[in-house]
Amino acid sequence: MKDFYDIIDKAARQQINERHMASGVVIIDVGNAYIGSEVSIGPGTVVYPGAIIEGKTTIGCDCVIGPNSRLTNMTLGHGVTIEYSVARDSEIGDNSTVGPFAYLRPGSKLGKNVKIGDFVEVKNAVMGNGSKASHLSYIGDADIGENVNIGCGVITVNYDGEKKHRTTVEDGAFVGSNTKLVAPVTVGKGAYTAAGSTITHDVPEEALGIARSRQENKEGWAKRSKGKK
Fold first, then answer.
1. Active site residues
2. Up-side HSE of residue 72: CA atoms within 13 Å toward CB?
3. Is the full-model pTM beyond 0.85?
4. CA-CA distance, 167 to 160, in Å (whole number)?
5. How far is residue 151's CA from residue 138's CA, in Å, rounded to a whole number?
6. What is the three-class DSSP state of 19?
7. Mean of the per-residue pLDDT values for the chain?
8. Helix, strand, coil % (nearest 5) of the chain?
9. What are the phi and psi torsion angles at 18 (to 5°)?
């Protein structure tokens, strides 16, 4: 609770912020940054207005903590950028970016040069170096390898109503937009999944997994349908 009271007490907050600035941290608005007493921040890091950094959070050098982001018990490497996001009890490697509007839930570990984009949620998952989930995805209970591309709208279906199951995506794989990965399932090294697929079986290395119905066009359907009304 001491950390909480330090954040809400104006005098204590001012003292904490001044200590960080004396160590080379750039705080854009000293009166509008909320940093707990146990937080460690490396020199060259920039903290924007409205940021809340609490618990036993450790931030490396030359990071950017964007406006209205909240970090709790986080470990950040060097050169990390976080924009308008919430992150708890997780790790982020060097030169990775998170946000805007992303959510890192407990137990997540991002490698180096990872991109977690807008409206992406990560929970109890590992993202290897160079992997990307740029927008609108849920990555829960998953092990994602290096240099993997997670397309827009991808969901790891990790809960069967009773138990949580893990998804594995190996190095260099490409998961097409709107793919649903029904765990437990593995997408092999260098494999692809076709956009819109529901993957319920393992996809072998270098294979293309397709799990959707073939498109069928009903010629003249719209005209006939209007005539029935």
1. 135
2. 13
3. yes
4. 13
5. 11
6. helix
7. 95
8. 15, 35, 55
9. -65, -35
Q: Among all chains, which residue has been given the structure tokens 């170096």?
A: 129
Contact criterion met (CB below 8 Å) for 47 and 68: no
Determine which of 5-14, 63-72, 153-162, 169-178 has the lowest per-residue pLDDT on average.
5-14
Q: Which two tokens stand for residue 144?
A: 């994602």
Q: How confident is the model at residue 3 (pLDDT cuts 50, 70, 90)?
A: low
Q: In whole angstroms, how far apart are CA 118 and each of 68, 108, 121, 133, 153?
A: 15, 17, 9, 9, 11
Quick check: bond before 100 cis, omega within 30? yes
Determine which helix (DSSP H) or strand (DSSP E) holds 211, and give its type and residue range. none
How far apart CA 67 and CA 60 sit, in angstroms, is 18
The answer to whether the CB of 197 falls within 8 A of the CB of 171 is no
Q: Where residue 225 falls among pLDDT bands split at 50, 70, 90?
A: confident
Token pair, residue 136, equals 């609108």
Alpha-carbon distances of 98 from 1, 4, 84, 210, rounded to whole Å: 28, 25, 9, 30
CA dihedral 34, 40, 43, 44 (to 10 degrees): -50
Residue-wise pLDDT tens digits, 40-96: 999 999 999 999 999 999 999 999 999 999 999 999 999 999 999 999 999 999 999
Amino acid occupying residue 47: V
**E-strand spans in 32-106?**
34-35, 40-41, 46-47, 52-54, 58-59, 64-65, 70-72, 75-76, 81-82, 86-88, 91-92, 97-98, 103-104
Contact of 42 with 62, CB cutoff 8 Å: yes
Total residue count of the chain as it appears in this document? 229
Between CA 174 and CA 187 the distance in angstroms is 9
